[in-house]
Write a structure and sequence with these properties.
The protein has 187 residues and is of the alpha+beta class. The protein contains nine helices and four strands. 59% of the residues lie in helices and 9% in strands.
Protein backbone atom coordinates (compact mmCIF):
# COMPACT_ATOMS: atom_id res chain seq x y z
CA UNK A 1 0.00 0.00 0.00
CA UNK A 2 1.23 3.48 -0.86
CA UNK A 3 0.05 6.57 0.98
CA UNK A 4 0.49 10.06 -0.41
CA UNK A 5 1.38 13.12 1.64
CA UNK A 6 0.75 16.71 0.63
CA UNK A 7 3.34 19.46 1.26
CA UNK A 8 6.14 16.94 1.82
CA UNK A 9 8.87 18.77 -0.10
CA UNK A 10 12.12 18.44 1.80
CA UNK A 11 14.39 16.00 3.57
CA UNK A 12 13.25 17.52 6.85
CA UNK A 13 9.65 16.57 5.93
CA UNK A 14 10.80 13.01 5.28
CA UNK A 15 12.34 12.88 8.76
CA UNK A 16 9.18 14.27 10.28
CA UNK A 17 7.04 11.62 8.55
CA UNK A 18 9.44 8.89 9.65
CA UNK A 19 9.19 10.10 13.25
CA UNK A 20 5.38 10.18 13.16
CA UNK A 21 5.20 6.69 11.63
CA UNK A 22 7.60 5.34 14.24
CA UNK A 23 5.68 7.04 17.07
CA UNK A 24 2.46 5.44 15.88
CA UNK A 25 4.09 2.03 15.41
CA UNK A 26 3.21 1.97 11.72
CA UNK A 27 5.54 -0.16 9.59
CA UNK A 28 6.78 1.16 6.25
CA UNK A 29 9.36 0.08 3.73
CA UNK A 30 10.34 3.37 2.02
CA UNK A 31 9.74 7.08 2.46
CA UNK A 32 10.12 9.37 -0.53
CA UNK A 33 9.04 12.94 -1.10
CA UNK A 34 5.27 12.88 -1.14
CA UNK A 35 4.76 9.17 -0.63
CA UNK A 36 5.36 6.30 1.74
CA UNK A 37 5.32 2.65 0.79
CA UNK A 38 3.67 0.76 3.61
CA UNK A 39 4.46 -2.83 4.60
CA UNK A 40 0.79 -3.45 5.30
CA UNK A 41 -2.56 -1.73 4.79
CA UNK A 42 -3.50 0.85 7.39
CA UNK A 43 -6.65 0.45 9.42
CA UNK A 44 -9.13 3.33 9.36
CA UNK A 45 -8.02 4.24 12.88
CA UNK A 46 -4.30 4.23 11.96
CA UNK A 47 -5.00 6.33 8.87
CA UNK A 48 -6.94 8.89 10.94
CA UNK A 49 -4.24 9.05 13.65
CA UNK A 50 -1.50 9.50 11.08
CA UNK A 51 -3.48 12.20 9.28
CA UNK A 52 -4.01 14.11 12.56
CA UNK A 53 -0.32 13.79 13.47
CA UNK A 54 0.79 15.03 10.06
CA UNK A 55 -1.67 17.94 10.05
CA UNK A 56 -0.19 19.19 13.33
CA UNK A 57 3.09 19.54 11.42
CA UNK A 58 1.62 21.18 8.32
CA UNK A 59 1.42 18.01 6.23
CA UNK A 60 -1.66 16.04 5.19
CA UNK A 61 -2.60 12.68 3.74
CA UNK A 62 -4.20 12.87 0.30
CA UNK A 63 -6.26 10.31 -1.53
CA UNK A 64 -7.80 12.24 -4.42
CA UNK A 65 -6.18 11.00 -7.68
CA UNK A 66 -5.82 14.47 -9.19
CA UNK A 67 -4.16 15.88 -6.08
CA UNK A 68 -1.87 12.85 -5.88
CA UNK A 69 -0.74 13.48 -9.46
CA UNK A 70 -0.23 17.21 -8.73
CA UNK A 71 1.96 16.27 -5.75
CA UNK A 72 3.93 13.86 -7.94
CA UNK A 73 4.53 16.65 -10.46
CA UNK A 74 5.70 18.99 -7.70
CA UNK A 75 7.97 16.36 -6.17
CA UNK A 76 9.50 15.47 -9.54
CA UNK A 77 10.30 19.15 -10.12
CA UNK A 78 11.74 19.58 -6.62
CA UNK A 79 13.82 16.39 -6.78
CA UNK A 80 15.24 17.33 -10.18
CA UNK A 81 15.99 20.97 -9.42
CA UNK A 82 17.02 20.93 -5.76
CA UNK A 83 18.56 17.49 -5.28
CA UNK A 84 20.36 16.82 -8.55
CA UNK A 85 23.43 18.62 -9.84
CA UNK A 86 23.42 16.84 -13.18
CA UNK A 87 22.24 18.91 -16.16
CA UNK A 88 18.92 17.73 -17.56
CA UNK A 89 19.56 16.21 -20.99
CA UNK A 90 15.95 16.56 -22.18
CA UNK A 91 13.45 19.36 -21.75
CA UNK A 92 11.37 19.38 -18.58
CA UNK A 93 8.15 18.43 -20.36
CA UNK A 94 9.73 15.22 -21.70
CA UNK A 95 11.30 14.54 -18.31
CA UNK A 96 7.97 14.85 -16.47
CA UNK A 97 6.11 12.78 -19.07
CA UNK A 98 8.70 10.03 -18.79
CA UNK A 99 8.87 10.21 -15.01
CA UNK A 100 5.10 10.18 -14.43
CA UNK A 101 3.95 8.19 -17.48
CA UNK A 102 1.42 10.79 -18.62
CA UNK A 103 1.22 13.04 -21.66
CA UNK A 104 2.67 16.45 -20.77
CA UNK A 105 -0.35 18.29 -22.17
CA UNK A 106 -2.57 16.41 -19.71
CA UNK A 107 -0.17 17.11 -16.82
CA UNK A 108 0.06 20.78 -17.75
CA UNK A 109 -3.71 21.23 -18.06
CA UNK A 110 -4.37 19.41 -14.76
CA UNK A 111 -1.68 21.39 -12.91
CA UNK A 112 -3.02 24.73 -14.18
CA UNK A 113 -6.60 23.72 -13.35
CA UNK A 114 -5.79 22.68 -9.78
CA UNK A 115 -2.96 25.09 -8.86
CA UNK A 116 -3.96 28.16 -10.88
CA UNK A 117 -0.45 28.43 -12.34
CA UNK A 118 1.44 26.63 -15.07
CA UNK A 119 4.02 23.89 -14.55
CA UNK A 120 6.47 26.12 -16.39
CA UNK A 121 5.98 28.92 -13.85
CA UNK A 122 6.40 26.43 -10.99
CA UNK A 123 9.64 25.16 -12.57
CA UNK A 124 10.97 28.70 -13.00
CA UNK A 125 10.21 29.57 -9.37
CA UNK A 126 12.18 26.55 -8.20
CA UNK A 127 15.04 27.18 -10.61
CA UNK A 128 15.36 30.72 -9.27
CA UNK A 129 15.32 29.51 -5.65
CA UNK A 130 17.99 26.90 -6.43
CA UNK A 131 20.01 29.55 -8.26
CA UNK A 132 19.86 31.76 -5.15
CA UNK A 133 21.14 28.86 -3.07
CA UNK A 134 24.01 28.16 -5.48
CA UNK A 135 24.91 31.85 -5.58
CA UNK A 136 25.07 31.99 -1.79
CA UNK A 137 27.26 28.89 -1.60
CA UNK A 138 29.71 30.74 -3.87
CA UNK A 139 31.23 27.49 -5.17
CA UNK A 140 30.18 27.74 -8.83
CA UNK A 141 30.57 30.47 -11.41
CA UNK A 142 27.42 31.94 -12.95
CA UNK A 143 28.20 30.03 -16.15
CA UNK A 144 28.39 26.76 -14.18
CA UNK A 145 25.14 27.58 -12.39
CA UNK A 146 23.44 28.29 -15.73
CA UNK A 147 24.64 24.90 -16.95
CA UNK A 148 23.50 23.03 -13.82
CA UNK A 149 20.12 24.80 -13.93
CA UNK A 150 19.74 23.89 -17.62
CA UNK A 151 19.69 27.44 -18.97
CA UNK A 152 20.81 27.98 -22.56
CA UNK A 153 23.10 30.83 -21.49
CA UNK A 154 24.14 33.06 -18.63
CA UNK A 155 22.15 35.85 -20.28
CA UNK A 156 18.96 33.74 -20.20
CA UNK A 157 19.50 32.87 -16.53
CA UNK A 158 20.27 36.50 -15.66
CA UNK A 159 17.20 37.81 -17.49
CA UNK A 160 14.87 35.31 -15.83
CA UNK A 161 16.46 35.89 -12.41
CA UNK A 162 16.01 39.66 -12.75
CA UNK A 163 12.42 39.25 -13.93
CA UNK A 164 11.56 37.10 -10.90
CA UNK A 165 13.56 38.87 -8.18
CA UNK A 166 14.12 42.39 -9.49
CA UNK A 167 17.87 41.86 -9.09
CA UNK A 168 20.66 40.58 -11.26
CA UNK A 169 22.31 37.39 -9.97
CA UNK A 170 25.51 39.28 -9.19
CA UNK A 171 23.65 42.02 -7.32
CA UNK A 172 21.81 39.35 -5.32
CA UNK A 173 25.12 37.69 -4.47
CA UNK A 174 26.59 40.99 -3.24
CA UNK A 175 23.64 41.90 -1.04
CA UNK A 176 24.27 40.27 2.33
CA UNK A 177 21.02 41.46 3.89
CA UNK A 178 18.90 40.12 0.98
CA UNK A 179 19.93 36.53 1.42
CA UNK A 180 16.44 35.51 2.40
CA UNK A 181 15.29 32.56 0.35
CA UNK A 182 11.77 31.21 0.11
CA UNK A 183 11.23 27.85 1.80
CA UNK A 184 10.35 25.07 -0.65
CA UNK A 185 6.96 24.69 0.97
CA UNK A 186 6.09 28.26 -0.03
CA UNK A 187 7.34 28.25 -3.64
Amino acid sequence: MTIYIQYMVSLRCKLLVKTELDNLGIHYSTIDLGEVEMKENLSTEQYAKLDRALKRSGLALIDDKKNILIEKIKHSVIERIHYSNEPLLVNFSDYLSSELHYNFNYLSKLFAEVKGATIEHYIILHKIERTKELLLYDELSLKEIANVMNYSSVAHLSAQFKKMTGLTPMHFKKMREYKKRISLENV
